[in-house]
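input
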Amino acid sequence: MPPGILTLAADKATLSPANTGFILVCSALVMVMTPGLAFFYGGMVRVKSVLNMLMMSFISLGIVTILWVLYGFGLAFGTDKGGFIGWDGHFAGLSGIGLTQLWGTTTIPVYVFAVFQLMFAIITPALISGALADRVKFTAWALFIALWVTLVYFPVAHWVWADGGWLFNLGVIDFAGGTAVHINAGAAALGVILVVGKRIGFKKDPMRPHSLPLVMLGAGLLWFGWFGFNAGSWLGNDDGVGAVAFLNTQVATGAAMLGWLAYEKLRHGSFTTLGAASGAVAGLVAITPACGSVSPLGAIAIGVIAGVLCAMAVNLKYKLGYDDSLDVIGVHLVGGIAGSLLIGLFATGGVQSKAKGLFYGGGLDQLGKQTVGVVCVLLYSLVVSYVLAKAIDLVMGFRIDEDEEISGIDQAAHAETAYDFTGAGGGSAVRKGPALGEALTKKVDA
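output
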């Protein structure tokens, strides 16, 4: 995501109502992705954990919004301090910003850029939650979100996207969040998993999705919102780059879904709805960093590669013994790595920048830069996330009691259940047998 669209020295940027409206719409689309993620994850857990899974995403909307206004925007996009963090006093509380004050050399106001970036900050910690289904305290999770965005997301966003950020200056390409969002969240998920451990019954009890229609609904909302996620990241609509990003998003997602399903058919003998939804999300993840630097043909290649790699990666948890409940590592970490590195092969040099990948005559230079970005973000997020989770576990305990996990985290944490199986519509009806006149009791479902 560029900090601003460059203009000619002789031209002074002026506020564009069209671009301003476009980015506001894109911001709303990205916001919808968090409820979409909640549905996607919520359908994949068992009935006794649905509400908790939904809440683990929804609470991010509250916590991160407040922290972003107070100091997050300043840390991520304030004046650079040594390449690793930013700060501007007038960004604290988003005060002292003019109504029509433009963001950098763009044609949109600072407020519009701030709210667009806020939606990225919200969904990133929500992504982590899928790895922790069924077993963590809600209060501990809420505290982790607050600490994690402060110490991990805000600094990494500065590294990757802010003018002066060290990875930005290095030339690492991340159009909309392959490193800052997906690798960041996937590595954090692994770090927390190492602290909280496995679910009771992992690899023994069936833990099948309770509602595949809900999974498909969530995947559809994510796909829909991702157009704002990617196309909006150019911060304008004047030069065609946003249109290429939009098209590549659709192309790679479709290709990844087909790649995942083909692997699934060959490996397991079936085309599953869960595979279709997961493959689509894998494609969305992989094309996120690359959508502004590759052609539609390159997007097809990235989608197919990511779909197959992520389909293979979700089985690693059974071989390596870590309990990534809903495959955050297999989809977001692996997909983010694949998309980020494949820029070094498929970048055409004719869209967002002149940087070319290996297959377009650019040699290994861009691949090397992408590798540095991937490795540094992964290691930083993994280590800091592990330390934060360990500290929370020592202070207040990160995991719920065993009895609560067995009976269901929804009742324990929220005093609610997702579905009422004993409501007013249920009951018993007594019928007379046609021959013997005996009473037969039949259960009538709601």
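quick obs: Residues 3-10, 425-446 have pLDDT under 50 and may be disordered.
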